[in-house]
């Protein structure tokens, strides 16, 4: 199978961390065809278009996309690039794994190590794009469909089955009728798979996730709730610079660090490349390259263990130095495995 990966650096630190991740792809999977695609605010400022039909066509020709970050300017004429991509490819499931790495500089030091996954519906809810603004009021429609609720829960079930864990449905059904709809469909779907589950209101979820993160394994929720909960979870493991993600559909996937374009540190060579590198790990898993994925995970853990990290994690290393340390480890393990 010829694997083509669309590589979108985007804006800000996306232009720094994605090239570092690409270095690792070239070492572990040299047969991947990497196709650069220019998308984002920088392109919009230069051409008036942040993402064109030609860009989308190019992405369609690829197996998947590795994505950096894009800046969204405060201009009503600018349309969200990521929302357009999600709708174009129907990337309905946003998967965000979290693993505690014992970051010494982190103010959060849990009693026990933990690892969990947030499975966020990615195309519906308050991000459906159904909005109206008048002089005196603004409305946003929170659209949930049976299809959307069922298929996001199916993804959660698949992950829970692989990990042999239960599922937590997080919602606000005590207030929102639309969440009664989501909760009922999610529960019905999980029961069909004979998987244990529990329910936690989203506000209580934020509270308990901080106090007892080790009690949760797979959390399924709606779009906005998942978006907010994901950033809270990032703080628990040391920061956004450690957090990868995958947005998937039935036949396509986009992999990206969950951090933004961070224009305040762009060009300083201090952006944390680990989230982008772990996004590459998720891409390898999705493509069935499990050996490469395992090596990337080991290499990242090696760098963190030896405090070879960027300033956001209390380190003194640059973006490129962190990647160099990871690559050095990968080359050692990779070549040993290939012998």
Automatic annotation (TrEMBL):
<comment type="similarity">
    <text>Belongs to the isocitrate and isopropylmalate dehydrogenases family.</text>
</comment>
<keyword id="KW-0464">Manganese</keyword>
<dbReference type="GO" id="GO:0006099">
    <property type="term" value="P:tricarboxylic acid cycle"/>
</dbReference>
<dbReference type="InterPro" id="IPR019818">
    <property type="entry name" value="IsoCit/isopropylmalate_DH_CS"/>
</dbReference>
<keyword id="KW-0100">Branched-chain amino acid biosynthesis</keyword>
<dbReference type="GO" id="GO:0000287">
    <property type="term" value="F:magnesium ion binding"/>
</dbReference>
<dbReference type="InterPro" id="IPR024084">
    <property type="entry name" value="IsoPropMal-DH-like_dom"/>
</dbReference>
<keyword id="KW-0560">Oxidoreductase</keyword>
<keyword id="KW-0432">Leucine biosynthesis</keyword>
<keyword id="KW-0028">Amino-acid biosynthesis</keyword>
<comment type="subunit">
    <text>Homodimer.</text>
</comment>
<dbReference type="GO" id="GO:0003862">
    <property type="term" value="F:3-isopropylmalate dehydrogenase activity"/>
</dbReference>
<dbReference type="Pfam" id="PF00180">
    <property type="entry name" value="Iso_dh"/>
</dbReference>
<keyword id="KW-0520">NAD</keyword>
<keyword id="KW-0479">Metal-binding</keyword>
<keyword id="KW-0460">Magnesium</keyword>
<dbReference type="GO" id="GO:0009098">
    <property type="term" value="P:L-leucine biosynthetic process"/>
</dbReference>
<dbReference type="GO" id="GO:0051287">
    <property type="term" value="F:NAD binding"/>
</dbReference>
<dbReference type="GO" id="GO:0004449">
    <property type="term" value="F:isocitrate dehydrogenase (NAD+) activity"/>
</dbReference>
<dbReference type="GO" id="GO:0006102">
    <property type="term" value="P:isocitrate metabolic process"/>
</dbReference>
<feature type="domain" description="Isopropylmalate dehydrogenase-like">
    <location>
        <begin position="4"/>
        <end position="326"/>
    </location>
</feature>
<protein>
    <recommendedName>
        <fullName>3-isopropylmalate dehydrogenase</fullName>
        <ecNumber>1.1.1.85</ecNumber>
    </recommendedName>
</protein>
């Amino acid at each position: 199978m010829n694997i083509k990966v669309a590589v979108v650096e985007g804006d800000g630190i996306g232009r720094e961390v994605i090239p570092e991740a690409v270095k690792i792809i070239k070492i572990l999977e040299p047969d991947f065809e990497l196709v650069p695609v220019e998308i984002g605010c920088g392109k919009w400022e230069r051409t008036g278009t942040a993402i064109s039909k030609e860009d989308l066509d190019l992405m369609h020709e690829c197996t998947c996309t590795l994505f950096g970050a894009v800046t969204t300017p405060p201009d009503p004429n600018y349309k969200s690039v990521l929302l357009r991509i999600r709708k174009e490819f129907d990337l309905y499931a946003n998967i965000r794994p979290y693993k505690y790495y014992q970051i010494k500089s982190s103010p959060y030091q849990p009693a026990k190590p933990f690892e969990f996954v947030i499975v966020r519906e990615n195309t519906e809810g308050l991000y459906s794009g159904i909005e109206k603004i008048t002089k005196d009021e603004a409305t946003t429609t929170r659209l949930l469909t049976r299809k959307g609720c069922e298929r996001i829960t199916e993804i959660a079930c698949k992950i829970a089955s692989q990990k042999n864990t239960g599922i937590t449905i997080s919602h606000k059904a005590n207030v929102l009728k639309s969440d009664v709809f989501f909760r009922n469909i999610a529960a019905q779907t999980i029961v069909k798979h004979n998987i244990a589950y529990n329910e936690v209101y989203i506000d209580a979820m934020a509270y308990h996730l901080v106090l007892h993160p080790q009690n949760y394994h797979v959390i399924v929720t709606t779009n906005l709730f998942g978006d907010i909960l994901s950033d809270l979870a990032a703080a628990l493991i040391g920061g956004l610079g450690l957090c990868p993600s995958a947005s998937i559909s039935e036949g396509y996937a986009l992999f990206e660090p969950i951090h933004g374009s961070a224009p305040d540190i762009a060009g300083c060579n201090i952006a944390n490349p680990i989230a982008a590198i772990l996004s590459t790990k998720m891409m390898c898993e999705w493509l069935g390259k499990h050996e490469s994925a395992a090596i990337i995970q080991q290499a990242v853990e090696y760098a963190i263990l030896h405090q070879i990290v960027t300033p956001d994690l209390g380190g003194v290393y640059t973006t490129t130095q962190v990647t160099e340390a990871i690559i050095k480890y990968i080359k050692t393990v990779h070549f040993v495995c290939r012998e």
